[in-house]
Each structure stands twice: as structure tokens, then as C-alpha cells.
Specification:
Helix content: 55-70%
CATH architecture of the largest domain: Orthogonal Bundle
Number of helices: 7
Mean pLDDT: 90
Strand order of the largest sheet: 1-3-2
Structural class: mainly alpha
Shape: globular
Radius of gyration: 19 Å
CATH superfamily of the largest domain: Winged helix-like DNA-binding domain superfamily/Winged helix DNA-binding domain
Largest sheet: 3 strands, antiparallel
Strand content: 5-15%
Order of helices and strands: HHEHHEEHHH
CATH class of the largest domain: Mainly Alpha
Number of strands: 3
């Protein structure tokens, strides 16, 4: 492993991201704890509500987890009436996921305090500043391979 110099590491941004994430998930965590769920349930309810009809394979790709990791959480959400699973119209083996009304309401209840937190943080930002924040977050979410491809294409 290469030797890393403390001066080359952006500890300030790392800490700001840590604290921002901790606080960003705190409100949904409190809501989920009351019904015996955790962050994995939040992610599933969120993405299924945002993209109704997505396949289990699509969800696995977004979350980048194994089938085994998703199976328990998905079963609990289906059994509790938050998610519906239906066979695909063309391929009956394909499983498509839809939020129930309760699932949509839960997703909205979890997203609302997060949306408020974002709005407060962006108060006074110009559209250009907001665009910069979005660009930064998109850059953070890309894999190293994606970033290399974007850099190669720009040069």
C-alpha cells in the first residue's frame, strides 16, 4: 500500500460528509425505528416508490447488494403491505415491484424531513451554486471507472 501523507487527505470534507449523512438519515431512522425497520427498508421503499414497476434485478443494481441481502427486507415489506410484487407482463418469471398506498405514504413520510433539511441547507444559494452542489454529489456517486471514462471523453 502506498504511503499516504496526512496533508494530501481532505479530512475536513470527509468529516463534513460524515456529519451531513448522519444528520440526513437521522429523521427517517427515527420514523423507521418506531415500526421496527432500518435503512435497508428505507432504500427499498424509496426506490420502489420513485420507480414503480422496477424489477428486482433493477433494484439489486441500484442498491448494489446481493439477492440474499435484499430477500429478507423485501419479504418484510411485502408481508407488511408496503410493497407489491407482480409477475412481468412479457416474462412471468420477472418480478416487478410496486409501492402500495401505505408504501407511498411511508416513502413520503421518510423523504419529507430530508427534503426540508436540503431546502434549509440550500437557502440563499443561487441556481449556479445549487448546480455546483448537484455536480459535486454526482461526482461523489460515480465509480472510479466512470470518472476515468468521463475524464477520457473530456480530453
Amino acid at each position: 500500500m502506498p504511503v499516504v501523507d496526512d496533508k494530501t487527505i481532505d479530512f475536513e470534507t470527509i468529516e463534513l460528509l460524515f456529519f451531513a449523512y448522519r444528520d440526513f438519515v437521522s429523521d427517517p431512522d427515527a420514523i423507521l425505528a418506531k415500526i421496527g425497520y432500518g435503512r435497508a427498508h428505507h432504500r427499498v421503499v424509496y426506490f420502489v416508490s420513485r420507480r414503480p414497476g422496477m424489477t428486482v434485478a433493477d433494484l439489486l443494481g441500484i442498491l448494489q447488494i446481493t439477492k440474499q441481502s435484499l430477500a429478507r427486507v423485501l419479504k418484510e415489506l411485502i408481508d407488511s403491505g408496503y410493497i407489491r410484487q407482480m409477475a412481468g407482463p412479457a416474462d412471468r418469471r420477472q418480478r416487478r415491484l410496486y409501492p402500495t398506498l401505505a408504501g407511498r405514504e411511508l416513502a413520503l413520510a421518510l423523504s419529507e424531513p430530508q427534503s426540508q433539511r436540503i431546502a434549509r441547507a440550500l437557502e440563499g444559494f443561487t441556481p449556479e451554486m445549487k448546480e455546483g452542489v448537484c455536480k459535486f454529489l454526482e461526482g461523489m456517486s460515480r465509480s472510479a471507472k466512470d470518472q476515468e471514462a468521463a475524464t477520457d471523453g473530456a480530453g
